[in-house]
## 1
Amino acid sequence: MKQRPGAWLVLPALVPVVLVLGAGIGTAVAQSLGLMPLVGVPRLSLDAYRAHGADVLTATRLSLGIALAATALAAIVGLVTALAVVGLLGRRRSGRAVGGLSVLTIPVPHLVGAAVMGLLLADSGVLVRWLGLDSLGGIVGGPLWLAVVLEYAWKESAFIALVVAGTLVTRVSSFDETAALLGAGRWQRLRRVTLPLAQPALIASSALSFVYALGTYEVAFLLGRVFPEPLPVLAYRLFTSVDLTTRPQAAAVAVVTTVLSVSVLLLTLTALRRSPAWR
Amino acid sequence: MALTTAAHPSVRRTRTRPRRVERALRGLRGWSGLLHLGLGVWFLLPLVPLLLWAVADRWSFPASLPQDYGLSGWRGALDQGAASALGRSLLLGLAVAGLAAPAGALAARGLVLGRVPLPGLVGAALLAPIAFPAFAVALGLDVLLIRTGVANLVGVVLLLAVAAIPYTTYTMRVAFGAYDLAYEDEARTLGATRRQVLLRVQLPMLAPALSGAAFLAFLVAWSDYVVTLLIGGGQVVTLPLVVASAASAIGNEAVVATTSLTAVLPPLVLLVLVRLLGRRRAA
Amino acid sequence: MSAHLELRGLTRRHDPDGPAALDSLDLDVLPGACVALLGPSGSGKTTALRLAAGLDVPDAGAVLLDGRDAAGVPPERRSTSMVFQRPLLFPHLSVLDNVAFSARVAGRSKRGARQDAQTYLDLVQLGGYGTRGAHELSSGQAQRVALARALAARPAVLLMDEPFSALDAALREDMHVLLGQLRAELQPTILLVTHDPLEAAALADTVAVLHAGRLQQHAPTGELYTRPSTLRVARLLGGRNEVAGTVTRGAHRSAFGPVPTTLPDGPAVLVVRQEAVALAAPGGPEPQARVQDVRPYGPRLLVTVRKDDGELLVEVPPGRPVSVDDPVGVTLVDPWVVPLLSLPAGEAG
């Protein structure tokens, strides 16, 4: 019976993806290169990239810094949460409860997360009132972009915990017992068996979190300060400004962000392929 | 060959260095409760102001708790159009889920169980939307959509569906990995038509994974802000936009809280339902 | 590697209201000996193994290694190694590093541990496979590496939980041969759990039969086949013949003739292996029966014969044509008498 499904099955998903991504990024690239101006004659040029050169550099450094800080914090908290959930750091029942609480944050949209963080961390926010202080030194809209980093870290730590716990939960007990029987104590089992087993999932989910923190607009918009601007905020401002000639510049910023994002993921993928625990 | 017995076989000798660490970490056992508590606080703390402000009528600085409780936040939310925004968000979520979940399921079935040329490349292409920032694709696509005259809402739905496809495809790929085509062959030898196989075998067996994939797609659309803002052009007002406009103004905390709560509850309810469905099927 | 393992009165109850998973098990594994724990699933054999390894804590009784009580000693400090049904090779380590794991964990340098591991890898005849990844091995090879890894830990006692049941028959044969070689080379003390009486017979010096958490009999394999202490043991080892009768004046009387026994007077059961019954031409002095059924069994025949109210299953070698309704003479080569099976809620049968 020739029952094997046909190749056409991928088309309903593949065609829209290729069309939308291709058209979207293609148009952005074309705009940034001066090939689709709203007024005037199309002319290949790099003016859009050079126009706000210093701003774009600052924005890139800022975006990368925020994403790095947020991902590092999220990875640490997420890893510890995952270890607690599978029962390697204390009692399993309370670990499961922590896991349940972390899942609660997943249906929260990032925008709402930012709004809620604002309620908590603003200078007139709830945390200030509970701690009895005058102010928190400007976490929201402050020079360190702490509120933005914390919001990303808060949500992404739950995501990382979910992914890492998912890979550990099926394998951890049997490998843990095997390692114990070979003489490894608790700390050694964590270091030599559990963490290496968790590493690919940790790296993959961290890379996804990094890319997300890099390219998201709403959190920086709500919790950040007016200047300097991270890449998505800069792009949005240029895109919606009254001056129509900034459109190509907005597209240029979008292209730069895309290139950064794709490069990070490709680098992660090649690093993962070489790791022996990745299958 | 030194393959003989150890001197004291019943208790293994351990190195001194691990022993000291072991002793130090044994003390950690008492700290594990504290650790769990700390993690619980980390995840729960931001949600507490949300709940408090949602029922606060008046809560001025520097009081620790609201001075007056009431529903003014909810009235404010309704005034700012939260009800219709809720409806629009729901429709958007359902539309995107209705497109991305079946497409992802079909693609996953093709990739896992069928013969697809260059499966690695196709798989990577279906995961690609994750690598591309949503605002960048929206920026580019917006110009194209204006020039071709496609309606705003259609553009939003299309872009969000594409953004959701990596999640639905991945979820269904995992599900099909554990799926046996032999069930369908068996059903056909028992006399079921193609349609009956679909309705009586495939869908029931895949229901938990499908609902999970649909939920993820729904969440992508429900949570979106920048695509709706850029391509919607201000005409498509979903719940995140209402929350954002409330949050960017000052002194609106109660409305921020109530609109945020409205934005959190439906996906939370759906998540619980999806998990229950998965557990019931597994039993 | 040759310690004396003793299980004394080992009891474990998983469910406080239900039956015990393991009930007062007394077992002695002498240094260098190989004892098999045989029984159906649920008989408690894996529980006994896990208690010996320290992966579980007994509710009563003790595990003694060379006379010292191992209570409170966690598995990593107890000198026992275990090989499971699945190889469970660490996927992030190469084959050699897997075998070297216990040495690394005990503090040896990477090079020293690897050198040590290489000798064990050679022992299981996989010397050249050290640099491969764990996923590149076939299931038989992976199980060998798991064996080498467990032995490289220089355990006082080697515990094995159905280690070869996931392999096909030919591979299993190879593993039996390998284990024999390892026993000759290292003289480890082995406690092996299996549900296959043939494997128990092939590998172990003595076999302990467990049923519902209780020890039924601990004896060399031959004795279990020919001198089972209870009906349960006979059944667990595949015995199909049970003839009811009564013991009077020192012999069991049934349709197939008197069989001397030391059991007290009363009802009892005659058991005899289907391979230990000979069929002769009719008309002789032995009990005469009639063939009821003939079924092929590989190259042999399974013949059911009946005399009065007694029925026997006989395994007949090839070359002896037998048909239904043939009269035959029946000789019991090595019969034995066991007590009636007591009710499950009562004492051990």
## 2
Amino acid sequence: MARVVFTQNLQRHVSAPPGEAPGATVREVLEAIFAAHPRLRGYVLDDQQRLRTHMVVFVDGQMLRDRVGLSDAVAPDSEVYVMQALSGGSGAALRLPPA
Amino acid sequence: MTDRLYIGTRKGLFVLERVRTRTAKAAGKSAGKGAARSSARSSAKSAAGASWRLLRTAFLGDPVTTVLPDERDGTLYAALNLGHFGVKLHRSEDDGATWHEVAAPSYAANAAQAMGRKITPEGGIEPVPTAPSVSLIWALERGGEAQPGVLWAGTLPGGLFRSADRGESWALNQSLWNLPQRTEWMGGGYDFPGIHTVLLHPRDAQCVTVAVSTGGVWTSLDGGASWEVRTQGLRNEYMPPGQEYHPILQDVHRLVACPARPESMWIQHHNGVFRSTDAGRSWSEITAIRPSKFGFAVAAHPREPDTAWFVPAIKDERRIPVDGKLVVARTRDGGRSFETLSRGLPAPPAYDLIYRHGLAVDGTGDRLAMGSTTGALWSSDDGGDAWQLFSAHLPPIYCVRFAP
């Protein structure tokens, strides 16, 4: 089973412990994790079940390519890291001047 | 007057209570010397010998985009935008002391959308799905008196959502979403259009009005089953010739109504100030406002339909107070004339901007609160004649709201 680790910054909002999950793709692995931690889903995926804009996933050091389908392959001994992308954050996602 | 005030900021929710000055000092001392000095500095004392005291905070460090105190059952709601981790909604049954997360509005059921295009690094074009995902809860309002648990939310991208179970679940209003004219809505300061105002008729819960930046004003008389545009008279002077009065291309920044006379409405529009006395069926442009006609915020008096407050600024990409001086413009005659109010507000240079939900009036019409992008919070107990500073050092303020 793949080992899955979530950014520590998630822990302030929702329980996201490291875990092991079965699956041949990132989607399958994450679905297995979400089955045990349903609230976690909305913090990682958006309304359309895509990876959130400012999140990033690494599989064995390789950045996720398919951010929409999450179809990147995962091996039984893979390590999957779910992290914040440096591209954004609350500042960039919530730009101040609305009009 | 209302003694409870909620402040949604870029770095958390602040709950203030109004206390007699002596009580405030005692509370400050008991919290330690440092806190006492801080309290003495930040508390705004009025002539009445009362001041605001920070009762509690919540979500420190996280953007709180809107807050709703629901007097029907005493629930307090707070909408968050966690950036990386998305939009969340939390509910409190003890006035903000403890919170738990409920469902946020979601476009999960609306995946079938047109595909967009993007240029690849190699110069090719590839399709990208543009199916929406909520990026901001911009408006949150309760349903009618006889609709316990019903909530309305306006979001960005611009959807209207309804919950019948205190936020446990949400449904997109399909009739508004599927309007053919919605394709003419445009992003204002964001990439997508957004619904920032949801206005419920105080005595007819079937009558719901939403305002869109950019997309005009829409009213439903049947609880959201059908919608009609109500923008006649709104004018965008910067549109191409002949398009100034286009019914959809109207950038309404904020829409409010007088609760006692809800047919009396006010709009702060990108292009100026507008008034309606027939529930939005027709609008008149107000030109007497000084020092400028641009702004975001407007507040309507709870009982006097001819009284409203605005916070003028320099328009378009600048968005700063005129001459670096923050003032409030008040009319008491339906917009024929305005007073420019500045007593207690800072002398220039003061580059505070007031966002569209950053100005509020309580149920008496005497007490106002105003919070700025530079983290200053003022209140007034005399309808805006004089203002008292609570703190100039809060995080950037998105919204201020009195308990009902």
